[in-house]
Amino acid sequence: MAQVNERLRLLTLNCWGLKYVSKHREERVSAICDYLAASDYDIVTLQELWVFADYERVRAAVSKRLPYAKFFYSGALGSGLVILSRFPIVAATVHPYSLNGSPIDVAAGDWFVGKAAASVIILHPTLGQVQVFNTHLYAKGGDEGPDHQKAHRLVNAWEFAKLARQAAELGRYVIAAGDFNSVPTAPPMSIIRDHACLTDAWADLHRHVRAPSLSNVPSPLDAIHIHGVTADSPLNSYSAGKPLEPYARKYQGKRLDYVFYRPPIDNGDETRQRPTLRCVDMKVVLTERVPGQAYSYSDHFGLEATFMISLPAFPDADPNPTQTLSPELIRSTLQSLTARYRFAKAQSNYHLTVFVICLICLLAFVIGSAWVPSFISPIFVLITIALAWLATTMLYIGFVYGNWEANALTNVIEELEIYMASLDEQRSSVGTSSSEQ
What we know:
This protein is of the alpha+beta class. 42% of the residues lie in helices and 19% in strands. The chain has helices at residues 25-37, 52-62, 110-113, 147-169, 187-196, 201-205, 220-227, 246-251, 327-368, 377-436; strands at residues 7-14, 43-47, 68-71, 82-85, 89-96, 116-124, 128-136, 173-179, 199-200, 257-262, 276-285, 302-310. A six-stranded mixed sheet has the order 3-4-2-1-12-11. Strands 5-6-7-8-10-9 form a six-stranded mixed sheet. It is globular.
C-alpha cells in the first residue's frame, strides 16, 4: 500500500459567512483561503459559506491540492455547505431537512437557508467508495428549555442518522462532519451516534477525560485542547464576553463541531479482508487571531482529524457493529416531538384565527369606506393593504406551514414508534428463545 494513501486528513469549519451580517467576512474568508492553501488536507467540509463568490475564492486557493469541489444549493438562500476533496467526486446529493424552523421567524433564518445534509461519494484508492457528509443542524432551541423547542433539531438528527446508516448499508465507508449545534450529551447526538453506529472521533480519542464541574472549571485553553470546545470560547474574539448558559460556563464554551466515521456493512463474505479506517489524532485549529488583525477566523474554531488506513492481519471479528437507540432516548424524543406537535397545532389555530379577524376587519373597512371623507381615504387604503398582507401571511403560516410541520412531525413520530416496536419484538423473541433452551 502506498504511503501517501495510508493517511487521510480532514478539516471542518463553520466559516460564519453571512453576507451583510457577519463581521469582517471578506477579510476572514481571505485568511481562511491562505490557511487552506498552505495546508495538506485531503478533505475539507465548510459550513456557512453562503456567498458563491467566497466559495469561488476558496476553491481557487486550494485547486492544486483539492481539485474536486461541490457547492450545495438548498432553500431560498442556499445551504452554505461546501465539500472539497483531493480524491475524485463521483456523486453528490443534498437532503434538505423536513423541518428547519418557521418561515415567520425571519431573524433566525434557518427556514430560508434550508439546513441540510450534503454528501459526496469519493473514490479513494484504498478504501474504494467513501461517502462524506457535511451538515449544519437547526440552530434555535438549544439543548435546554421546553421540549417543543428541541423538536426540529431532533428531526434533523433522525434524518441525518438514517442517511449515514443507509450509506454504510450500501457498502461505503462513512465520514461525517459539520456543525451539529448540540453538545455531546444532547439527545440529537445520541441519536446520530447510536442509530447510525457512528464513532465520535474526538470522544473516542479522549474517552478517559473527565467532565469538569462548576467548582473545577478548566482554563479556556484546556477546554479547547482537552474537551474539544469549538464555539462560545472566551478565546474567540466574537464570543469573548458573551453571556453563557451553565453548561458553557462549566466547559468554557461548547463542543458543537464533530467528525464521525464508520466502516461499511458487509452484506457478502464477512471473512474477506477490508481496509480499516481509524482516527488517530484530533485537534481544534484556527484558535488564533487572523494574522495582523484583532479578530478570529470565525465565530467557531476549526476541527482537524487525521485518519490512518491499514489492512488488518486478520478479518474483523465483528465486521458489522450494531447499536440501537435506548428505550429512554426514544421515549424522551417522542415526548419532545409530541409536545412540538401540540404546539404546532396551537400555533396554526392562532394564525388562522388572526387570518379570520383580518378578513372581518377588511370587510368592515370596505363597507365603511363609503362614508369616509376623501382626505382620509389614503389612510384607509394603507390600512387595507396592511391587513391584506397580514391576512395572506397568516393563512400561509397557519394552513400551509402549519400542516407541513404537523405532517413532518407525524412522519418521524410514527417512524420512531415502528422502530421501538421492532426493538421490543426482537427483545421478546430473544427472551422466548432463551426460555425454550
